[in-house]
Amino acid sequence: MAAALLFGGALLSPLAGLTPASAQDAASPPAGVPLAAPPELFGQPGSPSATRTIDGMVIPNPAQPFAGTIKLNAAQSTPAWPARTVAPQGAPNVLLVLTDDTGYGAGSTFGGVIPMPTLDALARDGLRYTNFNSTALCSPSRAALLTGRNHHNVGYGNIAEASTGFPGYDAVIGHDTVSVAAVLRANGYNTSWYGKNHNTPPFTESQVGPFDQWPTGEIFGFDHFYGFMGGDANQWQPNLFNDTTAIYPFLDKPGWNLITAEADDAIRQIQTVNSVDPSKPFFVYLAPGATHAPHHPTKEWIDRISALHLFDNGWNALRDTIFANQKRLGVIPQDAQLTPWPDHLKKWEELSADEKKLFIRQADIYAAYLAYADNETGRVIDAIRDMGKLDNTLVIYIVGDNGSSAEGSPTGTPNEVAQFNGVTPPVADQLKYFYDLWGTEQTYPHMAVGWTWAFGTPFKWTKQIASHFGGVRQGMVMSWPARIKDVGGIRNQFSHFIDIEPTILEAVGITAPSFVNGIQQRPLDGTSMAYTWDARPDDPTRHTVQYFEMFGNRGIYNNGWYANTTPIVDPWALFSIPPTDVMNSYKWELYDLTKDWTQNNDLAAGMPDKLRAMQELFIAEASKNQVFPLDNSVATRMVTPRPSVVAGKSHFEYTAPIAGNPNGTQPLLLNASYRISADIDVPEGGGNGMLFTQGGRFAGHGFYLLKGKPVYVWNLLDLERVRWEGADALTPGRHLVEFDFTYGGLGFGTFAFNSLSGVGQAAEGVLKVDGKEVARQKMAHTIPITLAWDESQDIGSDTLTGVDDADYESPFVFDGTIHKITLDIDRPQLSKEDIQKLEAAQSAQGDKG
């Protein structure tokens, strides 16, 4: 070492510039993606302005060897700076847009009646893709989109809140499957994400992390995140994060809405990048909550859409209109057949006048939400155009992470949280109490299933159903004026969410890395779609085989043929208990998609050998991609125990205020007895504020002081509030206030055996002050499954919506002193006899199908 210093030799690592042999072995690109261009150096080597591109096979790229000389004195030495890493010359900016829960036939670009002028304009300047497919559910589709791998291969066989302890279903994206953003960032891009996440394990979502699977962590690789972590969010009062910090920009801002705020922040970020370093390309992932419930557009957009009277003739007439539009636009073949209306859903003419009135209102709000989101996306695109960068921006606009959602019940719901707990208010009550409030901050609404089916025209089924195209077929547009010349064209090649990452990498001119942070990466599963930019509409697809699976519904695509199971449970029947023998309980169908675009003519009976070959192919693909074991349970998986910082604990102590503790890291109090004890000091002339709360306006409970009086409220899905209140205000000074809750059911242990008995049962609560009972009341029912999942647990305040708006406004900070709040939970335990009875009941119910 000393000799090297004395004689001016550069200090070189013995491994500098070498690629590990294992990296070389794993360096083959995914199908359709060429090898990256060799590294290039720009500018004077060693100068502060020197830049370089990298081959990207190993990221972070190995350190550059020092190119100057070092002697004993600086005067005789030569400095040299490592070159900054930049993107390949001419690499495009990338804007990736993804709406939520949007069927193929919803928006105007693919035949729908809901105006989407931003997407229409992109289609005129680019290409419409008519055969682009999702996974049928949100978290899985998003995981596939960002990683380029099949959803089971990255642990997302289901949503994160229903994860189970199997590799394909644990909701943990590993360090061996980093996202496209991490790859782009390592290659000189600025990366930012706006809106919905839903790909971080819930047990890591608190402010104590770990943060590696947050959007700004090393697995996803985004420089900036502005959005919400879970599956949906109240767009008026969201549980919102700026990077990893909870923020509350909506406080004291009437009319604030997250859809606009996301676009504002995206524009701010793009403009910042352009101002600081105009040569640096950006990757923007814009994933608004629209059109997942809650449907929360602004009043301006509700008024605009309602004035158009798009839905007055009902959902059956709407399907006919959409189908005709689709043929006129060429987004379905001229010989495509409209699939029949399902027998188990009412036709429009069978509805009462009250039902029609309510359902039209629901559709107007939904349509306003989609049109509003499209408009805000247009503002982002306008900002890119205004800075002169749209010509070299690849815009990929995907309409829906799955098909239209049927999770609102056949009559819709003013509160989706109620629906997920098995409660649907009757139409009369929805009209009386919620009609005028639909879409405002006072509702958490979802539309009726009839609209869901219509927005999936011309296909059958809906979100959750991976076997049929109503669940997986998404409209998609790509625009890149500098590269795509067949403007206004249509492409019918089969493709999938996993194809987006390889497409972006080919557009940029880089390949997927073999090693990231020393960890060998799994190969991409997708196929680049860049070949379609120069193809004819019906040229052969390069993505020839693809499996589908969700909740036991499954399908297999192979060169124009498609085999799939027939669903045995409606996706809106969230509490159904299907037979557990998933492999043998389902009928199979077979389609020749080259002649039958919409899965309308089942060939299974006449082609048993072809069907058998397709079934065998499914098993082979499923085995490769961690799909087994198959599981068709829905509600039961939502409450399956999973890792958490509170797992196995029943005693909790809080000695300081906390805010924003999410569902995945807070103690669950449903279907259990518990006691909350608050050791507090009440100030002179005071005694107001929250002590302990979980959830909020649409489901939750809170323990607080109101004008000095102790109050406990259970908000039962915004349909009923059960209240305990002391008659007297607390005197100034130290007090112990307690709430004892005794539950009368069996508890969550029941769910381990796919039974819903024993949950949501009656309970009794007792409120005490300094050991003396001050209020006692019974509850006929309790919440069985979930609180409002976009809310949080707070101690000493209530940061989002309140459990009783009549009592207080958030954040309702406690004005006294909390010495300690203690929570003790007594969860009912099942005896061996209970387990045997439940297993027998499950078996009997499963046999009945």
Automatic annotation (TrEMBL):
Source taxon at top rank: Bacteria
Alphabetic keyword roster: Calcium, Hydrolase, Metal-binding, Signal
Biased composition, class Low complexity, residue ranges: 21-30
Residue segments, region Disordered: 21-53
UniProt-listed Enzyme Commission number(s): 3.1.6.1
Sulfatase N-terminal domain ranges (all copies): 92-510
InterPro entries membership: Alkaline_phosphatase_core_sf (IPR017850), Sulfatase (IPR050738), Sulfatase_CS (IPR024607), Sulfatase_N (IPR000917)
Pfam families xref list: Sulfatase
Recorded GO MF terms: arylsulfatase activity
Signal peptide: 1-23
Family (UniProt): Belongs to the sulfatase family.
Protein name: Arylsulfatase
Lineage: Bacteria, Pseudomonadati, Pseudomonadota, Alphaproteobacteria, Hyphomicrobiales
